[in-house]
Design a protein that fits this description.
By secondary structure, this protein is α+β, with helices and mostly antiparallel strands. It contains 5 helices and 11 strands, in the order αβββαββββαββαβαβ. The strands form 2 sheets. A 9-stranded antiparallel beta sheet has the order 4-11-2-3-10-8-9-6-5. A two-stranded parallel ribbon has the order 1-7.
């Protein structure tokens, strides 16, 4: 009798475990769906299906003036530190990729993110999931960043590579990074760090994201944007409650 009861008990436990596995798997699939970045352009003739040819002149200084519905700011681009990613940003800006897109993510005192053409459609649920039809490698030299050997080993273990031919600036307030969905998945989205020097988030950003520039003018615009209310102040994926429209980006060289 006890043997039969034990068998029944083990059978029930097995069923519960199976249900648990299915539930966890379902959650992981849902999470994967949310975190994945889908391609926006499917037309093979679309110019944003392939990464642009390398055309910037690294002997020139590139600046990007970003005009928004909240004011303007200027980014001093890192053409020597991340030539491929800066070239990509310049190409997209010069070909009006960013025109009228919205900054879809605002985490006060942390970051402001934009560069997604999904924000042009009427579905807010896919904001932050768009990119062009290609991805780019990250451009980071782990050895030029203030990282311990343990931190560098951890990043390498996560798949982040190091390019010894580059010098990578460390994260700080108002630096501009290419957003990614893991190593070597840069495309069109970028974010501006709003966190001040006391924040521990800079150490997290170092090595995981490619810095493409530093805001050198128009800081008041970013400070004003930082004060805009968001839908969920406790979330790392908070959205601004009013539109922050990226009207245009003007590239200049000196």
């Amino acid at each position: 009798m006890f043997k039969q009861e034990n068998q029944v008990f083990l059978y029930l436990v097995g069923i519960l475990i199976c249900f648990g596995i299915l539930i966890v798997a379902g959650q992981n699939l849902s999470l994967g769906k949310i975190l994945s970045i889908g391609k926006l352009f499917d037309d093979p003739d679309d110019p944003f299906q392939e990464a642009p040819a390398q055309t910037i002149d690294q002997n020139l200084n590139y600046f990007a003036t970003v005009n928004t519905s909240q004011g303007s700011f200027t980014i001093d681009l890192f053409e020597k530190n991340a030539p491929v990613n800066v070239n990509n940003f310049v190409y997209l800006a010069n070909n009006n990729y960013y025109v009228n897109t919205k900054f879809h993510r605002l985490v006060p005192n942390l970051l402001l993110q934009g560069g997604d053409r999904n924000t042009l459609n009427t579905d807010p649920n896919d904001d932050g999931q768009g990119r062009a039809g290609y991805v780019l490698d990250g451009e980071v030299n782990l050895d030029s960043l203030p990282l311990s050997q343990e931190e560098k080993d951890k990043l390498r273990g996560e798949g982040f590579l190091s390019n010894a031919t580059l010098t990578t600036p460390a994260s700080k307030q108002y630096i501009v990074f290419m957003a990614n969905d893991g190593y070597d998945t840069n495309s069109t989205q970028f974010f501006i760090v709003l966190a001040d020097s006391s924040s521990k988030v800079h150490q997290y950003f170092n090595g995981r994201f490619t810095p493409i520039g530093l805001v050198s003018a128009g800081l008041q615009t970013l400070q004003n944007i930082n004060l805009i209310p968001v839908d969920n102040p406790e979330s790392n994926f908070a959205k601004p409650t009013e539109n922050i429209v990226l009207q245009s980006i003007v590239i200049q060289t000196f």
